[in-house]
Amino acid sequence: MLDVFLSPTIVAYTAHDPWGPWSGKTEVYVCPEADPKRGTFCYASKQNPVYSADETLVISYAANANDLATVVNDPSLYVPRFIRVPVERIFGAGHGTRGRIELFGRSVRNPLLKRRLLP
């Protein structure tokens, strides 16, 4: 989940039961696409258990912009992003191996869209 609405920071909360009590937040990742000057932001982060393993969690998030022209001129912005997060980063020591967060699965820019479509 994001720290606050449209925050660039993805955070995690843990609990033994789905209803809580919940831990304090753990900062997991800062979305590099988020840029207030450019009007881009991140949202809709979620853990994907189907793609996760014992020692890593797969988290997806989306990026977008405040205006259509930004997305039309950079269509790679509006694609889902996936990161692999070591379980230890969220649950602490003793829960998996220590490792770095890895961004993967990004779409490649469409070569047919080389020119700017909007001013």
What would you note in describing this structure?
There is one protein chain. The protein is mainly beta and 119 residues long. The protein has one domain. The protein is 9% helix and 30% strand. It is built from two helices and six strands; from the N terminus they run ββββαβαβ. It has helices at residues 68-73, 87-91, and strands at residues 9-12, 26-30, 40-47, 56-65, 81-86, 102-104. The protein has a four-stranded antiparallel beta sheet. A two-stranded antiparallel ribbon has the order 1-2. A hairpin with an 8-residue loop joins strand 3 and strand 4. It is elongated.
Give a quick precis of the structure.
The protein is mainly β. Helix content is 9%, strand content 30%. The protein has one domain.
Q: Within the largest sheet, what's the order of strands?
A: 3-4-5-6
SSE series: EEEEHEHE
Helix content: under 10%
Shape: elongated
Strand content: 25-35%
Helix count equals: 2
What does the main sheet amount to? Answer: 4 strands, antiparallel
Stretches with pLDDT under 50, minimum 5 residues = 94-99, 106-119
First-last Cα distance? 34 Å
Mean pLDDT: 76
Q: Work out the radius of gyration.
A: 16 Å
